[in-house]
Specification:
57 residues; alpha+beta; three-stranded antiparallel sheet; 2 helices; 44% helix
Length: 57
Amino acid sequence: MVYLDVADAKSTAERLAQAGVLVGTSGPTRLRAVFHLDVDDNGLDRVVAAFEDVFGT
């Protein structure tokens, strides 16, 4: 499990969801991400790309 502090958790989660990455919110500025056992290397690549798009590199 990974928690990320961001300026606006809801809008960040929505932007990630549009890129196909689902994360939860646990407060107005905190995201909760869990890496599922069934995610393969291609899935990880998609997650990294989505995070780069949303957060920048």
